[in-house]
Structures are given as structure tokens and as C-alpha cells.
Amino acid sequence: MAVSFSVRLEDVDGQRIPIMEYTKPQHIVLAGEVDSWPRAVVLGLTAADPITEKLLEQFFQREGGRGFHLTAMHAGDTLRLRGDMPNGSYTLQVAIQDLKLQTERFTIKVQEGHEDTVTAVVAADRRGIRQVDAFDPQIEQVLRISTLEGENALNWLADLNQRTSRRACLQNILAKLRCAPSVNDPFLPLIKDVFLAAPDRIYATIDRRLHQRLQELAAAGQWSHEGVPESPCHARLLQQLTERNMVADCTRYTLDSFRQQTVPSVQIVVAVPPEPTGNYYADIDIDLGNPFMDLRGLVVHAAEVASGETTDHLAMWKTLADDPEVSPFLAYEVVHPAIT
Q1: 303 lies in some domain
Q2: Average pLDDT, integer, range 36-58
Q3: Is the pLDDT of residue 13 over 50?
Q4: What is the pLDDT of residues 295-321, one digit of tens each?
Q5: CB 3.0–4.6 Å: which of 38, 74, 276, 330 could bond 27 by disulfide?
Q6: For 218-249, b where at least 16 C-beta lie within 10 A, e where not — what string?
Q7: The whole model's pTM is what?
Q8: Angle 173-176-181 from CA coordinates, rounded to 5°
Q9: Do 163 and 87 fall into the same domain?
């Protein structure tokens, strides 16, 4: 059946939060934000009653899989989904990166010729961050030589218009790199500069010796070597290198993934040039499992949405602050303003 349904956002006062853009793969941009970094979105669908469940099972059997044939688009100020699925009653689960929703599950009626719209209410995240100490000299050096969105990284961190989660993520990852694989011999001096800070990862230009060290650590059994990363999301590093005109041709680059054997663990995916003299780059994150980065499509079976945890770097601060190895290198703290 050719069907459609839409998702719109409101704040707790009932004011519409327009979705201004849908960017592939699976990202939206909201109106009114100075920091317009796209937010990943995942929608999960399951049958809400036995009749729809039977129809859905028949649909998947006929189509030879468990995927939904839906296309996302920006429509007015909503996110609209159109495509082929059985008529019926469904439970829609909504997850949007870096947003807290009052309710994440909704019941929708899917019927040919009728469009149902669900309204997800965004609850304010009152958490903020406050610098409480000077940066470690090695971390400060990386920040001084890095540029984020036209600003020196030190100034970018101090810019309150930048999303709090992104500023926390950058500092968390640099603190982990300051003591990995050890405090006395860290990776951080091999970071040439950071050129992107997302809510859950950073992209950096690295010294080729970082790749060599990771290979040595993996050979010694101290780090895990994944090789080509399982998740296609890491290919976005190569897309960024092309879009930023940092590399003329990324087709000959290969991706090589390594993971720290701790919890939480640093994952470093190295973009390896075809020639040893070429520039090396890395996608670096602290891995907790993330449905926004690991799922293959915008609309999935709802059980998959809960298959991992969202990487919340503001919440991660407490975990890292309690780690005696990492905490000396965290120069900020999370603050929770009193509700008035």
C-alpha cells in the first residue's frame, strides 16, 4: 500500500519547532538554532495489534526481509515518510540525537489515502558545562592548533552558542586520548589537529605513527583490531574530507578500525592513504554502542532502536570524572541549573 505519515516537533509550551531540512543519511536540521549541526534521527515501527502484526509478517515474507520501503523528506516544517507498507495500527518510536522527548512512543494509523501526524514534545535539557580548571598542556596544544567552524578550538569551546553536547564530547575524547594507551605515553601528541567535533565523535588529522602504534598494540593483544569497520557511518569521514577539499580523491583511502579494551572504550578509525607519504586522518569516538550511528536506515524494526545506548557525553562526564586515570585531564564539569 502507498502510505504516508509525518512527525513534527513542539516544545513543552506547545510552540512548534520547525524541521527545516532533512539531510541524508538520516539527519534533520531544526529552525532557530545558531549551532545547526544536523541531528541523527531513527524511527522504529512495530505492529500495535495482532491483525497488523499478521499483515506485517506477510509483508516481510513477500518482500524477503524485515525492511520498510519508506522515503523520508522535508515537508513544510515536518518530517514526512512515504512508501509501501500494510495498512494498520503501529507503534512508532522516535529517537533524535541530542534531544530529550517527553514521550518516545506513539500510536499511528497507517492507511492508504490518509496521513497521520504525531507530535513529539521536546523537553528542555537544562544541563550545561563550566570550565573549572586550566587545560592540560598537551590538550591545550591540540586545541590551539585546531580550527572548528572558522574559530580557533579554544574560542569555539568558550562559545556558548555551540551545542553543549559537542563541547563536552570534544573534551571527553581529548581527555581519553591524553591517557591512552598510558598517561606517560599517550596518543595525544600524534593528533595534528581536530577539524570537526560532533555530539559523539571528532575528526582529526593524525601523524602516521598513530596508525603504527595502534597496529603494535593490536599485535600485542592490548587493543582490538576490527579492520574495515562494520558500521558504514565511518565512511562519513571520507565524505567530509572530500567536501572540505582536504583530499582530492578519497576512493583509494582505506578505513582501519581499532578499539580500546576498556569500558567505556575509545574507537579510532584511521583513514589510511594509498601512499605512506599521504595525510592520515581519524574518526575518534568513545564507544558505548549508538543506534544513531550503527543502524542502516531511518526506519527500522522498533526493537533495533533499543539495541544500543545513545552516546550522551554530558552523562559520560560523570563516568570519566570517576576514573582516576582520566579525571586529572577533565577541565570542566556538568552543571544542573535549579528549576525555578
Answers
A1: no
A2: 89
A3: yes
A4: 445 665 554 444 444 578 999 999 999
A5: 38
A6: beeeebeebeebeeebbbbbbebbeeeeebee
A7: 0.84
A8: 135
A9: no
Q: What is the pLDDT of residues 93-103, one digit of tens each?
A: 998 888 889 99
**Domain ends where: 123, 139, 168?**
123
Query: 288: how many CB neighbours lie within 10 A of its CB?
Result: 18
Q: Is 70 exceeded by the pLDDT of residue 338?
A: no
Residue (of 85, 79, 105) closest to 22 by Cα position: 79
Residue 117 lies in a domain: yes
The answer to whether 205 and 279 are in contact (CB under 8 A) is yes
| pLDDT score for 225 | 96
Instruction: With a cut of 60, say whether residue 110 has pLDDT above it.
Output: yes
Residues 206-210: contacts with CB within 8 Å, 24+ apart? 206/270, 206/280, 206/281, 206/282, 207/280, 208/276, 208/280, 210/268, 210/270, 210/280, 210/282
Determine contact, residues 314/163, Cβ cutoff 8 Å. Answer: no
Which of 123, 153, 182 delimits the end of a domain?
Answer: 123
Structural domain total, the chain: 2
pLDDT above 70: residue 91 = yes
